[in-house]
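Archive entry: two folds, one per protein. Generate the first.
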Amino acid sequence: MASTPSPGEILSLFRSLLKTASKFSDYSIREYMKRRTIDAFRDNKTLSDPNTVCSAFIDGKTQLEIERRQSIVFSLYAPKRRTSWKSRAVDVKRAVLFMWVCVSGEKD
């Protein structure tokens, strides 16, 4: 195995993962990536064996590369128009109104 990573390298990996997670435009994915990163580092905080620390660090680097690729793919296929909660609420109101008109029209 490679040498044990320094605390600075581990912190740099943590920051890089969080920074890459913030590049996702979708809120759900962005928050999932952040939560997953924080949970993984919290779980591995107590590791003391140099081999397991090195293995966890290598896994983190692999996850960083995957996350970077996925952020690029998600940015390519992201919707061009952002929807806000207000526009979603208006869409729901329109759908309910349309359903009500259709149902009331069938009764006549």
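Generate the second and append.
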Amino acid sequence: MIFYICGDNNVKFDQLYVKSQNEFRYMNFQERKYFCNLKRLVRLQMLMEGDFGKKQTSITLTNFQTWSRMQPQIRAHRLAVVEDSGIKQKKIDNQLTIDAKGHH
């Protein structure tokens, strides 16, 4: 619910506010959850309709695109690190095997 406050309507607004708070307390969990999500959606819509929302959307899309381009590079780097550590471990294992054979 959206209330507009003008002049001497503060008393009426306070009464409506108290009434809405009481109704909110008597709602069950699912209704409260739905009501809160609805309020968030309305706030998000208000933000998105303004210039700030458009700018934020643009920035978010740019960040998603950058992240999408970086993902393959990150995967390739991780794979290279894993392969490199595997090769190093094999060299260490081979050296330990050679040392063990040399001492017997």
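Annotation attached to the second fold: The longest helix spans residues 51-103. Helices lie at 10-26, 29-49, 51-103.
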